[in-house]
Design goal:
Immunoglobulin-like; Glucose Permease (Domain IIA); alpha+beta; five-stranded mixed β-sheet; about 20% helix; 3 domains
Length: about 450
C-alpha cells in the first residue's frame, strides 16, 4: 500500500512538472526570435525589408510589420499561418508605397501557437526609431560628354546632393568587372559642397564593352546611377621581343627573390616566371594600396615633366614577348615609359606633390611614388638612391632621386608611371600642355558654367 502511494505521488509530481514545463512560461519561456537585417537606422520604400523569424518551441501564428509616423500606423506587411508547425519564416520585400519622410518607429510583432503561456501563446515585439528617406540622391553631370583613349585619362565633374549621402564614386564597367574611382569633393574649386570630381581611365579590355557611371548611395540605401557618355579610341600597341638569359636571371631575378625572402624554384626559368608574374602582381597590389589615399586638392600645375635629356626606350602598354632559349615563355604589357639618360642620372619630380612612398618594390627596385592630388600619382622605378624623403612635399622639377638598375632592369634607366587611384595610365598625355588644357582646364571651366545655371 505504501509503495502504491509513493508511486502515485511520483506520478503526480511528474504530471505537475510536465504541466509546468508544457503550459506555463516558467521553464521554456518565449522561444520567438526576430532578426532584422534591414532596415537599420534608415528606412526606404525602395530598399528590401529583410526579417528572419524563428520559434524554438512552437509554430508561428502571425507576423505584422508596420511604421508609426506622424501618429499614424502604416501597415507594411501582415501574414497569418493556419499551419501550426511552421517554426521559421524569412521575409524579404519592398514596401513600394508612399511613406511620410522623416522620423518614424519601425515595428515587428510576432505571435506563436505556444501553449506554454497558459494557452495564450507568446508575443515578440521589436521596435526602434528610423529615419524614413525614400528619395534617391540627386546627381547632375556637369562635365558633359567625355573623350578618352584606351589607357588614357579623363575627368568627370558632377553635382551630387542628398541630406543623407553616404557614398559616391565613378565606376567603369568592362569584362564583368567595375573599376572604381574615388569622387573627391571639389568645394575648394567650385565653392559648392555638392560638386565632385573624378579622374578615371579605361583599362585594356578584351570585349571593349566600357560603360561609365556615377554611383550615389544614401544611408537609406537609395541608389542613383547616372550614365556618362564617353567616346573612346585606341592607340596602336607596340610589340617587343625580350630574350631572357641565365645570366640575367642569376643577376637580377635571384637578387629580387633574395630581397623578398623567396625560396628558389626548381629551375632558373621557374624563378623568372615567378618574379615576372607573382611578384609583379604583388607589387601592383601594393601600389594600388598606396594610391588609395590622395590629397583632395590640386598639388600640381601645368604639364608634367619628362626626365631631363632622356630618350624613350619603351612606351605605355607595349606588348612584351619574353623568350627563353628560343621559346616564348611569357607575355606582359609594359605599364609606363622607360626613359634613358646618362648613367646615374638625376631624376626630377614630374610635378609638385607629396612623396607617399620611398623604398624597395620588387620588379621596380628602389621606387618613389608622389601624390599630386585628386587621385593622380607618379611613380619612379629602378632608382639607386633617394634625395627626397617620404612625407616631403616636392616642387615640379625638383631633384628627388638618382637612376640605376635596381629591380628587373637590364640597364640604367628610369621607369616612369602615371596612375589614377592606382590604375596605370599613359604618361604621354600628362606631358602634353594642349591635352592638359583641353581635357582638364577646359572641362573644369565648362563645369563651372553649367553649375552657375543650377545655382540660379
Amino acid at each position: 500500500m505504501r509503495k502504491g502511494r509513493v508511486l502515485s505521488l511520483i506520478l503526480i509530481l511528474i504530471a505537475i512538472g510536465y504541466v509546468i514545463y508544457r503550459y506555463t512560461p516558467l521553464i521554456r519561456g518565449n522561444g520567438i526570435s526576430v532578426v532584422i537585417e534591414s532596415p537599420k537606422a534608415y528606412f526606404s520604400s525602395n530598399k528590401p525589408i529583410i526579417v528572419h523569424i524563428s520559434d524554438k518551441f512552437a509554430g508561428i501564428k502571425s507576423i505584422e510589420i508596420k511604421l508609426i509616423a506622424m501618429n499614424t500606423e502604416i501597415k507594411l506587411y501582415k501574414k497569418k499561418f493556419t499551419d501550426k508547425f511552421i517554426k521559421s519564416f524569412n521575409i524579404n520585400f519592398k514596401a513600394n508605397r508612399v511613406v511620410p519622410q522623416g522620423k518614424a518607429i519601425f515595428v515587428v510583432k510576432v505571435e506563436d501557437y505556444s501553449t506554454g503561456n497558459y494557452f495564450n501563446g507568446f508575443v515578440k515585439k521589436i521596435s526602434f526609431p528610423v529615419i524614413v528617406d525614400s528619395t534617391p540622391p540627386q546627381v547632375i553631370l556637369l562635365s558633359g560628354t567625355g573623350r578618352i583613349a584606351i589607357g588614357g585619362s579623363a575627368l568627370a565633374v558632377f553635382y551630387a546632393k542628398d541630406a543623407n549621402l553616404e557614398k559616391v564614386y565613378l565606376g567603369v564597367s568592362h569584362d564583368g568587372v567595375v573599376d572604381k574611382f574615388k569622387a573627391f569633393n571639389a568645394e575648394g574649386i567650385f565653392g559648392n559642397k555638392h560638386v565632385y570630381i573624378s579622374f578615371f581611365t579605361y583599362r585594356l579590355s578584351k570585349l571593349k564593352n566600357y560603360s561609365t557611371n556615377i554611383y550615389a548611395l544614401d544611408k537609406a540605401g537609395n541608389l542613383t546611377i547616372t550614365h556618362i557618355p564617353v567616346y573612346y579610341s585606341s592607340w596602336r600597341l607596340r610589340k617587343s621581343k625580350i630574350n631572357i638569359t641565365d645570366s640575367f636571371i642569376r643577376n637580377k631575378v635571384l637578387a629580387i627573390m633574395e630581397h623578398e625572402n623567396i625560396p628558389k624554384k626548381e629551375t632558373l626559368l621557374a624563378d623568372f616566371l615567378y618574379v615576372n608574374d607573382v611578384v609583379r602582381n604583388q607589387n601592383t597590389k601594393k601600389i594600388r594600396e598606396i594610391c588609395k589615399k590622395s590629397i583632395d586638392k590640386f598639388l600640381w600645375k601645368g604639364r608634367f615633366l619628362q626626365l631631363r635629356d632622356s630618350k624613350v626606350t619603351a612606351t605605355f602598354n607595349d606588348k612584351r614577348f619574353y623568350y627563353y632559349k628560343g621559346k616564348l615563355v611569357d607575355t606582359k604589357y609594359h605599364k609606363g615609359y622607360d626613359l634613358a639618360s646618362i648613367r646615374n642620372a638625376k631624376v626630377n619630380a614630374a610635378n609638385s606633390g607629396k612623396v607617399v612612398f620611398e623604398g624597395y618594390l620588387g620588379v621596380y627596385g628602389n621606387t618613389m611614388i608622389i601624390d599630386h592630388g585628386f587621385g593622380i600619382f607618379s611613380l619612379y622605378g629602378h632608382l639607386q638612391s633617394f634625395i627626397a624623403k617620404e612625407g616631403q612635399f616636392v616642387k615640379r622639377g625638383q631633384i628627388i632621386a638618382i637612376t640605376d638598375t635596381t629591380g628587373l632592369a637590364a640597364g640604367d634607366h628610369l621607369h616612369f608611371d602615371v596612375l589614377i587611384d592606382g590604375y596605370y595610365v599613359n604618361p604621354i598625355e600628362w606631358w602634353d600642355p594642349h591635352w592638359i588644357k583641353t581635357h582638364i582646364k577646359d572641362v573644369l571651366m565648362d563645369s563651372r558654367t553649367r553649375l552657375s545655371l543650377i545655382n540660379q
